[in-house]
Amino acid sequence: MKKETIFLRITIYVMALVMAAFCIIVIPHYLIGSNNLMPDLPIFTILLGLGLYLSAVLFFSILWQALKLLSLIDHEKAFSNVSVQALKHIKIFAYSICAIYILELPIFFTFADRDDAPGVILVCAVFAGAPLVIAIFASVLEKLLQNAIKIKSENDLTI
Question: Does the reported pTM lie above 0.90?
Answer without folding.
Answer: no
